[in-house]
Write a structure and sequence with these properties.
Strand content: under 5%
Oligomer: single chain
Radius of gyration: 22 Å
Helix content: 55-70%
Largest sheet: 3 strands, antiparallel
Order of helices and strands: HHHHHEEEHHEEHHHHHHHHHHHHHHH
């Protein structure tokens, strides 16, 4: 990005988005996300394009409210695209899965940026600054390019580091506190990009997923015998995604435990590892620092130190390992690599929206009128009996567990089974295991 563009993004004010969402919430009692008179309810890109023909800066509080609310909608759309990508993977249609996963990544990026104060539209984009003043983003940049370039800039900001540090939460301790104690410091200078890179989500790699999307969306593959995943090959990875998303005291608590471990290991390798030490000496030094950190945080027993030092559960999640890889587009696992990056980015965008909603003094139940209707219409639950609140929505986990057991039972009995057999015998369970929109709800609880 050019210096003027970087400066424009640096002027974004997340606090103004918080204020705007709080204002917009006045419409929720009337079961509307925005005022019926808000001119930015429809055709927003076209109206932003017209607005940007002026000199600016602009005073458009209705647009700021539209951007604030859009962060929630982009997030849910991101999870919906991911659901469709999973459905495609259940048909071994890897190209379609990659295509849909990319658009999930795009929506996730737009969600994060909207919550930060950046409105990404068509070729014209805006930045919400102090006092709610809106400025035009310098130059013309297409939606896809803008989303990734702006996300990478966001990743270098203090806002991203603060978000990740406060929302990643393992063993009742925030990532911020884990890092402070691990480093024996009261200050943090890691950016969000550094943190996410340490646990496998290289923000620049998302741009490569766009290239993959272009290749599979606009080209054709003449080799119909390329390797395809079987149900038994996909089952462990799918199970892991769901278990990592299980609703509990804090969203994504299972996933976050691995993210904290990976982050601390990355910090050790960067800041504390002695290059002259042998592998054994480095391992022992890391173990001591992990154990001392747990003791300083008042953590009792051996279970957590054993996990953090890899004495137990030595392997990272498959989704983290796959997210860090760069296979060629026709590689047998490449589409899973894209979907894995998508999942981790959705975790990040869920944190962004959750932080926004809480800062605005709201709860996900305040927009239950919206998600009850939308998810009923999409067939996630019976239209006549939607969950009354987020706690009832968490009860959907029980059905997920049953479906995971059915899938495991099928693959154990049919290790070489084909997709026709799977869809014939446990069709409802496969549909249920694709409906990750429910994770969007859990992630905001």
């Amino acid at each position: 990005m050019k210096p003027a563009q970087q400066a424009a993004l640096a002027s974004a004010s997340p606090s103004e988005i918080i204020n705007a969402l709080s204002r917009a919430s006045a419409n929720f009692k009337a079961q509307s996300l925005l005022s019926m008179g808000n001119k930015y309810r429809e055709n927003v890109s076209k109206k932003v394009d017209k607005l940007c023909k002026g000199v600016g800066p602009y005073n458009e509080p209705e647009l700021v409210e539209s951007i604030a609310v859009s962060s929630i909608l982009h997030l849910f759309d991101g999870w919906s695209y991911f659901a469709e990508a999973l459905k495609a993977s259940f048909r071994a249609e890897h190209g379609i899965a990659r295509h849909l996963a990319y658009y999930s990544e795009l929506r996730s990026s737009m969600s994060i940026l909207a919550a930060h104060g950046v409105g990404v539209f068509n070729s014209k984009h805006v930045v919400v600054g102090a006092g709610g003043s809106i400025t035009k983003f310098p130059g013309d940049m297409g939606t896809h390019v803008m989303a990734w370039e702006a996300l990478k800039e966001w990743g270098t900001s203090s806002h991203s580091g603060s978000l990740i540090g406060n929302d990643i939460y393992a063993f009742n301790v925030t990532l911020n506190d884990w890092i402070k104690v691990f480093q024996a410091t009261t200050t943090l200078n890691l950016s969000g990009a550094e943190w996410v890179n340490k646990w496998g989500l290289d923000l620049s790699r998302l741009t490569e997923d766009r290239k993959t999307r272009n290749e599979v969306s606009y080209g054709v593959c003449f080799d119909h015998k390329l390797p395809r995943q079987t149900p038994s090959m996909l089952e462990p990875w799918l199970r892991e995604i769901w278990l990592a998303s299980e609703p509990s005291a804090s969203p994504f608590s299972a996933l976050d435990q691995y993210l904290v471990r990976s982050t601390l290991e990355g910090i050790f390798n960067t800041k504390f590892k002695n290059p002259s030490d042998s592998a054994g000496q480095s391992k022992r030094a890391l173990i001591r620092r992990m154990e001392d950190t747990c003791a300083s945080l008042g953590i009792k027993g051996d279970a957590i130190p054993d996990f953090l030092t890899r004495r137990k559960v030595p392997m990272d999640l498959e989704v983290m390992r796959l997210a860090s890889k760069r296979s060629k587009v026709n590689g047998a696992l490449q589409y899973q690599e894209v979907l894995s990056r998508t999942f981790l980015l959705l975790r990040l965008s869920s944190a962004s929206v959750r932080s926004l909603v809480l800062a605005a003094g709201l709860k996900v139940d305040d927009i239950s009128f919206w998600w009850q209707h939308v998810l009923s219409e999409s067939g996630l639950w019976q239209k006549s009996t939607p969950p009354n609140d987020i706690e009832e929505a968490k009860d959907l986990w029980a059905n997920v567990e049953l479906s995971l057991d059915e899938l495991s039972d099928f693959t154990a009995k049919n290790p070489h089974g084909c997709w026709f057999d799977l869809h014939t015998k446990i069709a409802w369970d496969i549909e249920n295991l694709s409906r990750v929109e429910k994770v969007a709800l859990w992630g905001l609880s």
